[in-house]
Amino acid sequence: MPAAENPAAPRLEANLRLDRGDFRLEASLDARLSGVTAVFGPSGCGKTTLLRAIAGLEREARGRIAFDGTVWQDDRTFIPTRERRAGLVFQDARLFSHLTVRGNILYGHRRTPADERIFQPETVIRLMALEPLLGRRVSSLSGGERQRVSFARAVLATPRLLLMDEPLASLDQDRKEEILPFIERLAGELAIPTLYVSHEIDEVVRLASDLVLVSDGRVVASGPIEEVSNRFDLRSYAGRLDAGSIIRMRVAGHDEETGITRFAFAGGEVIGPRVDLPEGAAINLRVRSRDVAIALDRPGRTSILNVLPGRVVEIGPNDGPQAHVLLDVGTALWARIMRRSVNELELRPGRPVYALIKAVAVDRRSLGRPTAMDLSLEERDAAPPDGRR
Amino acid sequence: MPFDFEPLWLSIELAAITVAILLAVGTPIAWWLARTRSRLRVAVEAVVALPLVLPPTVLGFYLLLMLGPGGPLGGLLLSVTGSSLTFSFEGLVFASTIYSLPFVVQPVQGAFEAVGRGPLEAAFALRARAFDAFFTVVVPMARRGFITGGVLGFAHTLGEFGVVLMVGGNIPGETRLISIAVFEHVETLNYPAAHALSATLLGFCFLVLLTVYAVNRRFPVHAGR
Question: Is A61:A75 a contact under the CB 8 Å cutoff?
Fold first, then answer.
């Protein structure tokens, strides 16, 4: 369930202003947080500044911030960073170079009163697979190892909210793949609501259940990822999001023989290449709009495996010879077709159509696993987390 | 012929006390300079750097005027304690602190700037209070600056001559430092005595630096953060 629809999830309200000459942040956010909420937008749009203001690191920021019923900042109050209990993970890890891995991990833990501690160091160390590194100096760590240390360090100070500022930005693609499961474990197994700043759509699709869209220092929209990413009025802000639709699905079953997986969603099922997830696991699936074709009749013999009945909702404004067509197939689905086809098929809002999705469009890179839901199924090397859950 | 090593020990004592005071006084100045966006910063930086460029005799002259019985500080001290600071060991400590200030403040400031805000913010998010974060994160990460500053401050104080001559004079056991003693031995053509003092100082300084660099090497050089 996306955090936006979960009444038990803690609520973050932020109304912030920050003027810095050439840059102005004027952000207003009211969101329930559970699992991973991505703060998405182009570089320089102010998402990092927003995150830092929430952490209490931007003292010039004016306005109000409240989290889970506690006012962190308003006209009279300014709760300092150390008392906000917001764990921070920086793009550059910011480990303490004079301490060992163990010293880094325990820095916040030692400063956390015993009765507030929720996580035990052994649990977090196991979860982040850090045992072999404990005695090492941080200068000898790889980029991925550094981030795992910084995750563990932040978590052991028992944060009520994790703030991550592009933690994968300095890693190459292989290292990112390596680190992503660890981030999923934090938000999932440890159940810490996480705000995740990123401008990488792949990370967002893979991790997030909810989305905060930031542009030009303003929060343009926030809500469940599916809803926000498919709103037509947001397409210019979403930037690279508009390459496709994000649809939340569950693994319905596997067919080992043909190497495919069936995914179920509100409008039926689609077929894609086999993924290594148990039945029932939830994923975000991205369908590129250029991989969606439209037919008026259900096609007969075709190589296209996914044929979804639906109707046209909206036809986007001219985009050269191409048109963006929003379909309702039980969920929002964007198709990019030639404008000439729009005319020939006489497409208009309300018209019943069939959406054709090439199964191969459901590739590994477009798959994302949201947090919290499926992680309970993935017990692998993890011991039961202590407390809270 | 028995040599009088008192000037050597007096110099070392002076240098050690001066460095201790400078670390205590210079660190907050260096921190402020590394962090402030105030317009006063450039002025303060210039004042701190003055002893680098002023001839020691000029600095000594003004310190003499200030510390003497007729000077503002000396007069005040005279009325409170019954003695001014000129021609006393305490006066030398004061003068040396001024004289060696930039040699401690500048390396420490540079180290603070190199550490930057990042680790401090990380420490705050890990619930550290300001002083806690400063002493457990910033100072250890800036330790090279402190070592450099301490060594430079010590060496510079050990080698001072002009300021000492102006403020301290040449009172055995009180203000007769090694540089003064060597100068006097040479003037009186007592080369063996000059040699004894000079060679001992040379050896001592070499040993100190050797130890510092050897200890410093044990901490690996950290690339970036």
Answer: no
